[in-house]
Amino acid sequence: MKKISFICCYTKEDMLDDLQKSADCLVDYEIEWVLIDNSSNRFPSAAAALNYGFDKSTSEIVVFLHQDIILYDQITIDRVVNAAECGCIVGFAGRFSDGGKIVSTISDGQNKDRIYDYDFKGKDWFDVLTCDECFIAMNRDIYKAVGGFDQKNFDGWHLYGVDLTLRAAQRHIPVVVVRANAWHRSHGTMDRNFDKYKNILRKIYKKEYKKIYYPCGWTYTNSFKYYGRYCARSLKRMLKRER
After folding, report:
1. Longest dimension (CA), the chain
2. Chain-centre distance of CA 141, in angstroms?
3. Closest to 103 in 3D by CA, of 29, 167, 17, 178
4. Which of 25, 67, 94, 242 is positioned for an S-S bond with 131, CB 3.0–4.6 A?
5. pLDDT for res 235
6. What's the pLDDT tens digit per position in 213-228?
7. Which pLDDT tens digit goes with each residue over 75-114?
8. DSSP 136
9. Contact 7/62 with Cβ under 8 angstroms?
10. Domains along the chain?
11. Which residues are within 8 A (CB) of 184 and not within 5 positions of it... i.e. 6 or more apart?
């Protein structure tokens, strides 16, 4: 029986309970739960919490997942494990380097909407540039090769997984999204700190990319184009309000 570490930073015990119950479908796996209670804000960032969780884990395959994920079947995790054993970083949602549709088949939000439903054409996974933070898996050697999550630059709760997958690309480590039957109960949140970490991404990777695509959007790395787009969007909203 293969052993997998599920590493989850949580603040809501009811959601965590639902996640753990959903993992009962994984009958062929021994699940090591590495649970990080952050209800009292012990950790200042997701990166710090998840790196701590990795150090506590013992399995060869490690899965970093949000508390609001619900798993529906074992075949999804079979695909995750197969890809991780091949040396890939594995996600449930991602974007290609040139944009396009979000690559995902999971349900999203309280109504379990299939917003994306990407056509995998019978394939188990597709290579992507970046992954969403709701679910990211890899083997221990790959985690060490990319240096874990960057808790110095990404000292909050946004884009830490996108950064990790971009660092993987620099090291020619494949990043993939698997065809998955799962539910992400939240659409995610973008508070005012999101732009802070988007700007950090821009500065770090401006030499490699003109644009960076991630599941919840994209950004120019060139400052002139970035602020030009921002101003154009603000002007458009203002003119719309005045009509």
Report:
1. 64
2. 19
3. 178
4. 94
5. 58
6. 999 999 999 988 888 7
7. 999 999 999 999 999 999 999 999 999 999 999 988 888 8
8. E
9. yes
10. 2-242 (3.90.550.10)
11. 66, 68, 69, 92, 93, 106, 107, 108, 109, 134, 135
pLDDT in tens, 181-236: 999 998 777 788 999 999 999 999 999 999 999 999 999 999 888 887 767 666 56
Instruction: Write the single-letter amino acid at 236.
Output: K
Q: Determine the Cα–Cα distance for residues 147 and 144; give it in Å rounded to an integer.
A: 5
- Both tokens of 57, joined, read 């884990």
Closest by Cα among 56, 76, 75, 74 to 6: 56
Q: What is the dihedral of CA 39, 40, 44, 47, to 10 degrees?
A: -30
User: Which uninterrupted H or E stretch holds 127?
Assistant: strand 125-127
Query: Residues in the chain, how many?
Result: 243
CA–CA gap between residue 145 and residue 229 (Å, rounded) = 35
Q: Which residues of 53-76 are buried (b: 16+ CB within 10 A; e: fewer)?
A: bbeebebebbbbbbbbbbbeebeb
Angle at CA of residue 149, ends 25 and 199, nearest 5°: 120
9: left (phi over 0), alpha (psi -120 to 50) or beta: beta
Nearest in space to 214 (alpha carbons), one of 94, 66, 74, 59: 94
| Listed residue (38, 37, 36, 42) closest to 56, CA to CA | 36
